[in-house]
């Protein structure tokens, strides 16, 4: 299955998400904390895509963007925290 992880951000909030056929099927929300940090607060994947790895891809995209921007991530969301605990190679942004 091919899909693109997209990002939208305002001054204080943002999200990474996946849309399939115009419907948002996965989303990870975060708060912008100053100029050097985001706080991931929630991840949700619709039932039909749960277990597909889509949620993990949202976290990985956030990590890639954090590296480019030189910012850190605070994973308050239990799902995001579990992805970081399973993938040591992502922890440089914590």
What does this protein structure show overall?
The protein is an alpha+beta fold and 94 residues long. The chain is built from 2 helices and 5 strands. A 5-stranded mixed beta sheet has the order 1-2-3-4-5. The model has no long low-confidence stretch (mean pLDDT 97).
Give a brief outline of the structure.
The chain is α+β, with helices and mostly antiparallel strands.
Structural topology:
Layout: E1 6-9, E2 13-20, E3 23-32, E4 37-45, H1 54-69, E5 72-75, H2 78-86
Give the termini separation: 30 Å
Question: Could you give the count of β-strands?
Answer: 5
State the low-pLDDT regions, or none. Answer: none
Element-level helix/strand string: EEEEHEH
Q: Please name the CATH topology.
A: Aminopeptidase
**Count of DSSP-assigned helices:** 2
Radius of gyration computed on alpha carbons: 13 Å
Structural class: alpha+beta
- What coarse outline follows from CA principal-axis ratios? globular
Tell me, what is the CATH class?
Answer: Alpha Beta
């Amino acid at each position: 299955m091919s899909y693109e992880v997209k990002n939208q951000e305002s001054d204080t909030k943002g999200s990474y998400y996946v849309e399939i056929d115009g419907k948002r099927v996965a989303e990870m929300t975060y708060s912008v904390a100053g100029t050097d940090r985001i706080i991931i607060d929630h991840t949700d994947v619709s039932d039909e895509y749960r277990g597909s790895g889509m949620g993990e891809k949202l976290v990985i995209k956030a990590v890639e963007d954090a590296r480019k921007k030189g910012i850190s991530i605070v994973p308050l969301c239990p799902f995001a925290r579990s992805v970081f605990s399973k993938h040591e190679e992502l922890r440089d942004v914590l």
